[in-house]
Amino acid sequence: MGPLKQPPFSGQSSNNFDTFYIKRVSDRDETFSSVSPFLVEKAITGSVGTVTSTKLMRSGDLLVEVASRKQAQQILRLNSLSTIAISAQPHVTLNTSKGVITCGRLLNLSNEEITQELGGQGVKDVRRINIRRDGVSSASVFGHSKTNCRGTLTCARCAAAGHESTDCTAVEKCVNCDGKHISFSRSCPKWKVEKEVVATKYKQNISFPEARRLVKAQTPPDGKSYASVVDKSHPVYQTTNCPHCNYVVTMSNPVPSTSKKLWNIFRRYPTTEHHTAFKRAKALSRRIRHRSQRESWINFVSSLTSSTSSKQLWKKVKAANGIYREFSIPVLTTGNVTHSAPLDIANTLGHTFAQVSATDSYRPDFVAIKNRAERTPLRFIARSTLPYNSEFRMFELETALSRAHDTSPGPDGITYNMLRHLNTTSLSHLLFLFNRIWTEQKYPSQWHEAIVIPILKPGKDPSNPLHYRPIALTSCLCKTFEHMVNARLIFELEKQGCIPPLKSGFRRGGSTFDNLVLLETQIRNSFVRRNHLVSILFDTEKAYDRAWRYGILSTLFNFGFRGNLPVFLKNFLSHRTFRVRVGNCFSNHFIQAEGVPQGSVLSSNMNTIERQLQNAVNKLVAWCDKNGHAISAEKSRCVLFCRKRNIHLDPNIQIRNAPVPVVNEIRFLGVIFDRKLAFLPHILPLRTKCERSLNILKVLSRTSWGADQTSLLRIYQAVILSSINYGCMVYGSARPTVLRRLDTIHHSALRICSGAFRTSPVESLYVICHQLPLHLRRQKISALYFFRAQSVPRHPISQITLPAFLHRLYAARPSRILPFCERDKMLLHDSDLNVTIQSSDFFCFPPWDVPHFSYLNPFSGFDKSSTAPVSFQQLFHHHRYRYSSFIPIFTDGSKSDGHVGCGVVFPSDTLSYRLHNYCSVFTAELVAIFCALQEISPSRQRKFIICTDSMCALETLSHYDTQMHLVGLEILSFLQFLWNKSFNIIFCWVPSHVGISGNETADAIAKFASAFLPRALPYVDIKKFFVSRLFSLWPQKWDLLTNNKLHSVKPSIGLWPILPIRRVDVKLTRLRIGHTRFTHKHLIFGERAPVCPTCHQNFTVHPILI
Fold it and tell me: What region holds the RNase H type-1 domain (predicted)?
């Protein structure tokens, strides 16, 4: 047998002592889960020395792996770990391993002799394995052998309990899967799964539960795979005889096994007949697979219905269109060195990002200015108590969490979703932490760290590290606190007028449309004067990464900020570090010397520069040199807007002796401006983009299957129509022939969504889908934007006025297109909408002192539909008795056809006003409350109770928000004024029309109010009225189309219920429109119209149905 082989053998450890031990806390109610891991590590190291590993198990016990026999003896003698009483014992299974020895010479030896002889090699137990010669296992249940089975005796042939399978003659049945085969058959699907689990476990070196989960995830569940979606009751799929080899094809025995069988036959006997049989079997299997895939896709797409939530809808749409793209790690090149390892790539990107924000990246002249300025320290010591430095309150924290968007977590792994689910006690602790940071002027060190995700810039070379944009992921706890601080900062900047009016980005009431409209207005005015207009669009290099932090803090110091607020911003900007993540690899820590992190909340308000044109280019460059910014002449663009046809020289503008390129068209904030302002270069790419997006709708629907009409319209409005709507108030001034190029997109989308036939009239498509034509939609968006601009104080669009000489020029030259504001004023004048819009004050209340409003509801436990009016009257009398010292006031609002009014009833007087017909009843209710407060303001009495039947108005006042109704903001502001004058005002809700005299009187005088109250209209009311007015003009045009086939079925425009079955809904839609394949396909193929053989008239839908 040869010399004895020295241990260790393969898979055997050389240690002859137990290396794994379990430590349990002696107290049964306690575990190591609540013990600090640092305390455990120090206690183990102090007791037995440094061990190989220490892990916390799910049960709360500790699993310790020792490194020597001495440590094993010491750990068994331990009775306590620091101050914790414990007990230690060897692990049951980890200290041993199982192996198989195949040797015929050991067949006749006893197990005891083998155990004794191999004991010196660490063998503790020997067990024989009996294998059946037919190649199958003798165990009926997976996981153990028959001799170790502790369950009930079960037959491996018929799955019945109580007898062996040796003499069983019953019908075969598997005990594992209930299939028609014996339990130890290798064709059992459960056996195959278990075999895959074992293989995965040993190949990937993972545990059995992990291997089982992995195999389960890779195995499609029944009913969700391509093959399982096929209707098994269908005769084609249930049983099919192969026409070539007479092989029976079923779903349990599909054709792929047939093709494999025939392939093996062809390999052994390569004849033409066998080759043909194999090809036919393979084609049949491919046909069945494609059918099953199609059925699976149809079922998936048809699950998109009107009841599907938006989240699930977009999840399925993205999955269907393959929008989820796998991240690919790039290969970077720096000089002659190539970096392909993820860690090297991360370090290379981190080094590049750090150098961009380093002091060496600035120009030498700015470095001198920077060093000279930073010698003067900024002392933000507050000599007096400033309101914005007060401690934060709970409503500020709740507001910040409610308005935060779900973003990726920072280094701490805490998400916004976790913070939103905190209870009141936890939120109080979090607020206490924030206030300590605020008042003690300390900043957590972990908040200085950021995880940077490199994002490749569009169209750039992925091998260049400079072509990546660093997006910083910071702590969500820190960003929540930033939201709270940012609200106070913005309030103070707006109130002090520190932000210029032309700044629209990251500002309440502003949008990118403001700058688009301003540019278009300047170009139109220069065209009418037959002048040139030169527009330069500057590109600031690394504006975020090179922002001068001291310059930002110096600006805040000059604005007069002192105390906690500027100190927090100073701590926020200082000592910032970052790590770059590429895949699962993190780079080393790098220092961000200057700049602000892209992705934080405060960054957008830290980086604002003023822009000017040709005469101020040098001044702008000098300003950038003094503040650490650099303008790229290569990326900047110059456009000469001119409609003259003669040849003229382009302007020669230079930035540091580098010429700025002059182009014929430029993309500005998503809209392409060409030099003649025809907008054709913008509409053509927009149409191409929308045509590609139409493929989403085509993929999700067919005429016989797919998502329903409501879901398709939702997708169309979000994906395609939103792109068409953007900037339409500017490019809507293009020629009608240019704008009609977008109508085909709109019509094609409506045909796909509704399933209408291709020859259907577009007017019928608008009505059947309840979608406005694009020209009416552009009017709607332009008018609403104009109204919105009028409601914002100091809005740049509301300040635009056309001088008198330009009015005369436009009148003398009618071919010239008016600017946006004048076009919209003409549209509103034609619609008789010359009204004044109420200006909204977004900063009426400071974030740290919002009003608190509450009201009484003595009728909360009574249902109006099941309670007698006399009961409400008795409850109200009891309520009046309780508050008899308060003077009662009743308010109400009323709206009917052509009349809107409000009424206020005092104990000795009444007050009623008529409001504008555009006002809503909700506005009337709020105006009535506001009028009541104004009337009691000069009174010498101080106790009043205001009763109203509008629960909606009271709920609105009790939930303060900067976006609430403008009259509600006026009420809260006036209430605060009255409370400061020692007024005690209580609000109470009363039910309407139950016989309460004061409420009935207020309702009556509101209905017949005649005195008109001149008030500006809130934006929400004028918006609602204009939209309804626009939808009323649409039916007027629809009434003129009397020859339209749909008009006879649907004379009034309105929503029809959608059928959930796509095939039926499409048929019904085509029948309603009157255009079907049978009646109108001749228009497509150039054939003659089908004629009825009886009446010799062209076939239509009407006689077919009737």
Answer: 883-1011
Measured between alpha carbons, how far is 68 from 46 in angstroms, rounded to an integer? 16
Say which residue the tokens 């009141």 belong to. Answer: 424
673 phi, psi to nearest 5 deg: -100, 125
Q: Tell me if residue 480 falls in helix, strand or coil.
A: helix
CA pair distance 609, 503, nearest whole angstrom? 9
Residue 653's contacts (CB-CB under 8 Å, 6 or more residues apart) are 534, 536, 614, 617, 638, 659, 660
Give the pLDDT confidence score for residue 149 in this predicted structure: 58
What pairs with residue 263 in β-bridges?
none
CB distance 85 to 79 below 8 Å: yes
Mean pLDDT of the chain: 81
Question: How high is the pLDDT of residue 608?
Answer: 35
pLDDT for the residue numbered 901: 92
Q: With a cut of 70, which residues of the chain have pLDDT below it? A: 1-16, 20-29, 82, 130-152, 217-257, 321-328, 595-616, 646-648, 1104-1106
Phi-psi region at 599: left, alpha or beta (left = phi > 0; alpha = psi -120 to 50): left
pLDDT at 235: 41
Positive or negative CA dihedral for 329, 330, 332, 337?
Answer: positive
In the Cβ-directed half-sphere of 355, how many Cα atoms lie within 13 Å?
8
How many degrees, rounded to 5, is the angle at CA 653 between CA 650 and CA 656? 155
Contacts of residue 841, Cβ cutoff 8 Å, sequence gap at least 6: 793, 969
How many C-beta atoms lie closer than 10 Å to residue 187's C-beta? 10
Tokens read off for 350:
């981190």
How would you label 865-888 residue by residue, b for 16+ Cβ within 10 Å and e otherwise?
eeeeeeebeebbeebbeeeeebbb
- Give the integer Cα–Cα distance in Å for 210 and 198: 11
Under 8 Å between Cβ of 872 and 520: no
* Nearest residue to 1077 (alpha-carbon basis) of 765, 700, 768, 760: 760
Query: pTM of the predicted model, to two decimals?
Result: 0.69
CA distance 858 to 876: 8
CB neighbours (10 Å) of residue 79?
9
Q: Is 161 helix (H, G, I), strand (E, B) or coil?
A: strand
- pLDDT at position 688 is 93
SS3 of 584, please? coil
| C-alpha span between 712 and 717 (Å, rounded) | 9
Q: What is the model's pLDDT at position 952?
A: 92
Select from 725, 750, 712, 755 the least CA-distant residue to 317. 712
**pLDDT score, position 7:** 47
Whether residue 8 has a cis bond before it, omega within 30° of 0: yes
**466: DSSP letter:** G
Q: In whole angstroms, what is the distance from residue 304 CA to residue 696 CA?
A: 13
pLDDT on residue 429: 93
Which residue in 686, 680, 752 sits closest to 716, CA to CA? Answer: 752
Three-state secondary structure string covering 365-390: HHHHHHHHHCCCCCCCCCCCCCHHHC
In this structure, the strands spanning 576-582 and 449-456 are parallel
Residue 613: per-residue pLDDT: 43
> Are the beta carbons of 1057 and 1083 closer than 8 angstroms?
no
* Amino acid in the structure at residue 775: H
The C-alpha atoms of residue 1082 and residue 343 are separated, in whole angstroms, by 66
State the Rg of the chain over Cα.
40
Which of these, 800, 791, 795, lies nearest to 819 by C-alpha position? 800
> What values do phi and psi take at 912, rounded to 5?
-140, 145
Q: How far is residue 94's CA from residue 97's CA, in Å, rounded to a whole number? A: 7
Q: Label residues 920-946 b or e (16+ Cβ within 10 Å = b).
A: bbbbbbbbbbbbbbeebeeeeeeebbb
The conformation of residue 717, written as its DSSP 8-state character, comes to I
d(CA 621, CA 631): 7
pLDDT of residue 2: 44
CA pair distance 121, 696, nearest whole angstrom: 68
